[in-house]
Amino acid sequence: MPGEKFEVVEELNDEELKDKEAKGISGKLDAVSWSLFFIWMGVVMITRAETAVAFFGIGVLILGAQAARSYFLLKIEKFWIIVGILFIAGSLWDILDLNAPFGAVVLILIGAAILVSTFRKKDREKTSERGAAEKSSP
Question: Is the model's pTM score more than 0.90?
Answer without folding.
Answer: no
